[in-house]
User: What shape does this take?
Amino acid sequence: MKTKRQSAEKVMHRFFFCVAGASIAILLFIMVFLFMEGLPIFKIVSVRDFLFGHYWYPTSDPADFGIFPLIIASLSVTALSSVIAIPLGVMTAVYLAELASRRVAEIVKPMVELLAALPSVVIGFFGMVVVAPFLQNVFGIPTGLNLFNSAMMLAFMSIPTICSLSEDAIYSVPSVLKEGSLALGATHWETILRVILPASISGISTAVILGMSRAIGETMVVLMVAGGAGMIPESIFSPVRPLPASIAAEMAEAPFRSDHYHALFAIGIVLFVFTLLFNLVADQIAHRYRQVGEASL
Assistant: This one.
């Protein structure tokens, strides 16, 4: 019986090892392909001119491959969407975990998480048909397809991620910390602000970083509602063209293995680096502020 159990454990160990190895191998192959197709553009243009050039005209003669306006657009949209999504996501998580009744939480939580089930093209279509005319009429701007519109749509997509992970982090705080705070005379709000949130800061920070990572890599929404103007935004109502939108809009038109083709893959490398940095920051924060034991505060 013991030998059979050990054999089964070895089989399952090898199975999961193969699955994990396959995932790593697939990711590695994708990364190698991305760099193989993107790096040749730097034989035509320098890394500095590519990253900090102000003009993106890949089909002109001579072509310009400056993606600085596209980088600024991506960072601006991500930052503005984070300003909207982080307070809403974290406060919703606090409400569901600490303030809402069980019945209310069972209703509100599925509604929040339902946003994650909406296809990005549906959210983009909503931004085009409903939000864009509203912004245009209310603020008197030339077009409602702009940075602010895309930031709001990305915020709606990031809120479920931030809310769900933050709620899990708040739930994971040991109950003795909360009970000890209340026993010492602290109010419920003081316990939330000074005990529960500091104890769950690791998970909340990770949720925020992952929500930002999704926002900076989203393609369909920014392609539909950002406006498609490859220039540095002057205000939150300026039309912009983030990095993913440029790849999605131009990849089908770029001749195979042309300079334009390689430049789009180089944009993919930049996006890959941004996402990698966000995940490294999330991992660093999670390890730095990870709670060890109930008395670590």
